[in-house]
Amino acid sequence: MRKKPVRVAVTGAAGQIGYALLFRIASGEMLGKDQPVILQLLEVPADGPQKALKGVMMELDDCAFPLLAGMQAHSDPAAAFRDADYALLVGSRPRGPGMERAELLAVNGAIFIAQGRALDAVASRDVKVLVVGNPANTNAYIAMKSAPGLPRKNFTAMLRLDHNRAVSQIAAKTGKAVADIEKLVVWGNHSPTMYADYRFATVHGESVARMIDDQEWNANVFLPTVGKRGAAIIEARGLSSAASAANAAIDHMRDWALGSNGKWVTMGVPSDGQYGIPGDTLFGFPVTCENGTYKIVEGLEIDAFSQERIRITLAELQGEQDGVKHLL
Ligand SMILES: NC(=O)C1=CN([C@@H]2O[C@H](COP(=O)(O)OP(=O)(O)OC[C@H]3O[C@@H](n4cnc5c(N)ncnc54)[C@H](O)[C@@H]3O)[C@@H](O)[C@H]2O)C=CC1
Ligand SMILES: O=C([O-])CC(=O)C(=O)O
């Protein structure tokens, strides 16, 4: 029997990530090849983006996706998020020339307060929210704090692109297949301070750290390469990562919804105090997913080098959260 369609809201739907994301959601790559979807698309209430969104919807029509059970264009979050089972918050204000970080946080604060409130008011009580728009962790924190009627665990931020970047770098370094690399994690903030950690990683049970055995490469090549990959893409393409970001969003939601089959993946999720991260901080943690829920992998040993890296990325996140406290 055909499954009942689920409602997937996507913001920033006419942007570059939206263009790389919507077709894959509609083709079943995110929620399964047997799961019909209704796309509820949000763009800013301005002629240009709304017109571009109509064009994207024309193309979605032209794909005749069997799983696409409906599609709506919206300019109001309270309409776009109605009964949403999944919400991918991609749209946000990018940093302009000369814009201070505090200013960026304030502009995005207003967007994510409004969207958090709208989710609280109209979305499914089980809505799974993924924030992609930067600064992703803090935007997710703001949305979570603005939706007191929804469980905190429903709000997540995207660190999967960082995770996938780290996996790919490790595969290249070790000459092993990407698919065989397990137990990697990226701790902290989606920013250059993130801490990509392969101390626990294995390939067919063999330790990756032992295979590489090069702390100099870890500290001076691997970490800066993963941390500054976003900037390197902008430098090369003249635009920020879009297809790889959309791919990471699909990976994040698919694993959350359908399970990670025991594999560790990285998600930005609200802390419950694990690893000394203060409660509610939206932090990149290793998780496993099963039956539509994620669980933080606990009890990992944190050595002195890792503790210092985690301290740095946590301090940055706490600075961002302090910067938006007055808005909440
Ligand atoms: N977490 C991550 O790993 C990554 C995050 N990003 C971030 O994702 C965001 C989107 O990137 P792109 O698609 O390349 O940007 P883009 O500028 O091409 O598209 C963003 C779209 O969002 C729309 N938008 C802005 N405010 C909105 C609002 N309040 N409601 C609905 N729509 C709104 C804009 O009109 C625009 O069409 C950026 O903040 C970017 O920095 C990008 C790559 C990776
Ligand atoms: O760096 C940027 O602006 C886009 C981004 O988040 C990434 O590619 O990781």
Notes on the protein architecture:
It contains 11 helices and 14 strands. It has helices spanning 16-26, 47-63, 77-80, 101-122, 136-145, 160-174, 208-212, 215-227, 229-237, 243-258, 304-324; strands spanning 6-11, 37-42, 68-74, 86-89, 128-131, 155-157, 181-182, 185-187, 195-197, 202-203, 206-207, 265-270, 282-290, 293-296. It is globular, with a radius of gyration of 19 Å. The chain starts with 5 loop residues before the first strand and ends with a helix. It binds 1,4-dihydronicotinamide adenine dinucleotide (NAI) and oxaloacetate ion. Residues 11-12, 14-18, 42-44, 49, 90-94, 111, 132-134, 136, 158, 161, 190, 240-242, 245 line the site of 1,4-dihydronicotinamide adenine dinucleotide.
The Cα radius of gyration reads 19 Å
Strand order of the largest sheet: 3-2-1-4-5-6
Distance between the termini: 45 Å
Low-confidence segments, given as residue ranges, are: none
Biggest sheet architecture: 6 strands, parallel
What is the residue-mean pLDDT, rounded to a whole number? 96
Name every ligand kind in the structure: 1,4-dihydronicotinamide adenine dinucleotide, oxaloacetate ion
Describe the global form: globular
DSSP strand (E) fraction? 15-25%
The arrangement of helices and strands along the chain is: EHEHEHEHEHEHEEEEEHHHHEEEH
Function: Catalyzes the reversible oxidation of malate to oxaloacetate.
Domain Lactate/malate dehydrogenase N-terminal: 6-155
Keywords: NAD, Oxidoreductase, Tricarboxylic acid cycle
GO molecular function: L-malate dehydrogenase (NAD+) activity
